[in-house]
Amino acid sequence: MAGKIPQHFIDEVLARVDIVDVIDGRVPLSKMGKDYKSRCPFHDEKTPSFTVSQVKQFYHCFGCGQSGTAITFLMEFGNLSFPEAIEELASQVGLDVPTEDNKPGSPNTTNQTKDLLSVLSDAKNYYQRQLREHAQAKTAIDYLKQRGLSGEITTSFDLGFAPDSWDGVLKAVGTSDAKQKSMATAGLLITKDNGGYYDRFRARIMFPIEDHRGRVVGFGGRILGDGEPKYLNSPETPLFHKGSELYGLYRARKSVRDLQHSVVVEGYMDVVALAQSGIDNAVATLGTATTEAHLERLFRLAPEIIFCFDGDRAGRDAAWRALEVALPVLRDGFQIGFLFLPDSEDPDSMVRAEGADAFRERMKQATPLPEFFFDSLTAQTDLTRLDGRARLVELCKPLLGKLGDGVFKDLMVERLASLSRLDTDKLARISPQPAPGRRQPNKPAKPTTLSPVATAIALLLQHPAKTHGRTDVEKLAGLNLPGMVLMIELVDLTDTEPELTTAALLERFRQTTHHTHLEKLAAWDHLVPDDNVVEVFDETVRTLAKKRLGQEIDDLLAKSREQALSEAEKQRLLELTQKRKST
What we know:
Elements: H1 7-16, H2 19-24, E1 30-32, E2 35-38, E3 50-53, E4 58-61, E5 67-68, H3 70-77, H4 82-92, H5 109-133, H6 137-146, H7 151-156, E6 160-162, H8 168-173, H9 177-185, E7 189-191, E8 197-199, E9 204-210, E10 216-223, E11 231-233, H10 249-259, E12 261-265, H11 268-276, E13 282-284, H12 292-301, E14 304-310, H13 313-326, E15 335-341, H14 347-354, H15 356-364, E16 367-368, H16 369-378, H17 386-400, H18 407-420, H19 452-462, H20 464-467, H21 484-496, H22 502-508, H23 515-523, H24 533-560, H25 567-582
Parallel strand pairs: 12-13, 12-14, 14-15
Antiparallel strand pairs: 1-2, 2-3, 3-4, 4-5, 6-9, 7-8, 9-10, 10-11, 15-16
């Protein structure tokens, strides 16, 4: 793996973070005995089966089988790559991620990220300077004033100006071939057909787009005057993914947490205008429809989302698309509302015309998702007719089937039963449809009896401190059983590095074919009380040592049937036979 993160650094990060804090910040946990529990975030369930062990630094869901370390959780829950998960955890404990190259000159992903972030930051500074200094900037400043934006809010959002030039940012930031290449990769430049580059953004107000850590990963540009497209966003890059980023989220996150709801608007200018009026919990999608990733991000911060759309047909169509995306994400305790503005109005114009208090009052009157859902569908049917009510049920079934089991779904089905005048029992056939990437619960697994090798590996993984130094590897050397090589490797690890937790041990094997199997063993319920772990482990090792003894005796006996044994081999066979009798 080129530019890989050193193992010692991964160990240090895992030693410093607490998986309970990592998960509890995203999925509220409750203390139950020595562990913590919650309803699983990876599948829909009514009874909590998601368990987090602080001792092992490991989580496991007994419903869907999902398990892993703090790193795995961030990768699965936050849709992060392995390096991004490490970076996220490292930032929480104040560490910078180092890397090591396997081969001289090999590409380094982390270094590339730094290079891209560097040119994007330089570009942001360049665009800000142009807004202050460039001869063409008056047009941009007049536009911002016309939209009612103050210099203070413009500075707060780091707004800038891209002059009407083919090589403005190219000359200012692209001072080397390497930087120009990075700028093209970051979406700042476009490659010419005959070689070379030119500026992507020209004659536009520039809105820097920040990721969850406040780093500039892309830009949105609003054209000055006539022209298309009106808004131009950075293309998809290694850092920028429109389907997961939200404009203004980094700045809004504290307000969203404090107010316990977020407001999703359609444009950059809406976010800035609302913030200037003191409404700091607004974010905008980046020229794309709302995605599940957007909703998951917002629901991690607060349990309520209010979508703000124009009240015309296009706005209601956009609201319906957002509703359909939201259904698989909704869980008990989450709420979504829809605020429809008067025709030809947007949040920017409304807040300037009415003021922040009036806009907040409008948000309080937002149409709840269930009301919008049933109003939209009943408008397509005639409930005075039997076939009209049947039609409503058919319209609702596939949509309600996207909801996970829970109180919210039960109430939605009850509402449909009332409208259709059907018994809820007759609507019970509406079953949940798994959302993309979410797991269906497995049937409860039957208790599994493990082989002695697998048992030893499970105990080594789950109790590395207790099993440390208790295995005489020489007594097991050469034992030909599945998993023995892996077991010896684990013994060596726990003996030489006794401070490693279950999580740290698992991460040592992430890039190997053993990782999935080890995760299962780490989650295996061996039903052994903590006080008896050492006793059971020692007995398991003794069993393996006896097998090794018997294997060597069998080998010598097999050889004796084909040829005469040497005196040394005869003596060895005698010793082994006597030893087996005495054990």
